[in-house]
């Protein structure tokens, strides 16, 4: 995962008082990509994006392909720089604007406050599937044996054959890698979890497992912000769908 390092807007807006239970509030968000290999052409993606995520709910980002759903998710996780606007993330001492957070702060927020299940697993050479899943818990200070126990539980629930657990996932199928990725994302307990198409390569049985995992997170008070191309999954988990094409800066 990359972290943007460029400075953002000149002035950091004052933190708002987020309503009780609000974990994330996106305000007036705008982003355009600059295509340096195309003579600096600017490609506007979203303008004026705004929505909130409350504890115990799942908000789905909807809209057609290319509308900017993944770009919004990446801005919330601090992977993409924002041009204007604010992304208020609830922290223990009050809201932090992710759009202005320094890289070190962002890494700390990722450890404690915000998790992310990316679309594809980033394979780490020579690390077993079990340790890929257990690693975020170990990074939080959980003892390796305990972290691996929880990882085993999740991999078993996601029907990953036990013979694969000790192998690095580089050679796994797309669906097997996605299940390792989902397990890695769901193992920790940050209050906000971002999901980028977590069921895209999964069969119906494992899609249902992911739906159950999301439902359990919601019941424990986690807020989720996700992209679900599969309408059945979206209908099963989403409390609200935010149509990103409403924030488009050009026809999609
Ligand atoms: N790093 C990048 N550099 C340049 N353009 C980009 C970059 N990332 C995304 N885009 C462009 O921004 C637009 C929005 O892309 P994005 O992936 O956010 O859409 P999406 O709604 O998630 O699409 P899909 O449903 O197909 O995944 C697209 O036109 C895409 O080409």
Automatic annotation (TrEMBL):
Keyword Protein biosynthesis among record annotations: no
Entry-linked Pfam families: ABC_tran
The UniProt record lists the keyword Nucleotide-binding: yes
Listed GO MF terms: ATP binding; ATP hydrolysis activity; lyase activity
Domain (ABC transporter) ranges: 24-252
Alphabetic keyword roster: ATP-binding, Lyase, Nucleotide-binding
Similarity remark: Belongs to the ABC transporter superfamily.
PANTHER family reported in the protein's UniProt record: ALPHA-D-RIBOSE 1-METHYLPHOSPHONATE 5-TRIPHOSPHATE SYNTHASE SUBUNIT PHNL, LIPOPROTEIN-RELEASING SYSTEM ATP-BINDING PROTEIN LOLD
NCBIfam families in the record: CP_lyasePhnL
Protein name per its UniProtKB record: Phosphonate C-P lyase system protein PhnL
Organism lineage string: Bacteria, Pseudomonadati, Pseudomonadota, Alphaproteobacteria, Hyphomicrobiales
């Amino acid at each position: 995962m990359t972290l943007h390092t460029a400075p953002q807007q000149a002035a950091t807006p004052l933190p708002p008082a987020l309503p009780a239970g609000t974990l994330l509030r996106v305000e007036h968000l705008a982003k355009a990509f600059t295509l340096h290999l195309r003579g600096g052409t600017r490609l506007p993606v979203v303008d004026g994006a705004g929505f909130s995520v409350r504890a115990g709910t799942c908000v789905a980002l909807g809209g057609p392909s290319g509308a900017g759903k993944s770009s919004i998710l990446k801005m919330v996780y601090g992977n993409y720089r924002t041009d204007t606007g604010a992304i208020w993330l609830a922290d223990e001492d009050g809201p932090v604007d992710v759009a202005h957070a320094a890289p070190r702060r962002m890494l700390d927020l990722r450890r404690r406050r915000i998790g992310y299940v990316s679309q594809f697993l980033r394979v780490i050479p020579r690390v077993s599937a079990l340790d890929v899943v257990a690693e975020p818990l170990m990074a939080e200070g959980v003892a390796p044996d305990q972290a691996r126990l929880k990882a085993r539980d999740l991999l078993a629930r996601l029907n990953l054959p036990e013979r694969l657990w000790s192998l690095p996932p580089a050679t796994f199928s797309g669906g097997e890698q996605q299940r390792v990725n989902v397990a890695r994302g769901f193992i920790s307990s940050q209050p906000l979890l971002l999901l980028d198409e977590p069921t895209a390569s999964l069969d119906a049985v494992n899609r249902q497992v992911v739906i159950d995992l999301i439902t359990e997170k919601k019941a424990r008070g986690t807020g989720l912000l996700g992209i679900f191309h599969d309408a059945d999954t979206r209908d099963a988990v989403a409390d609200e769908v935010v149509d990103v094409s409403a924030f488009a800066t050009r026809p999609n």
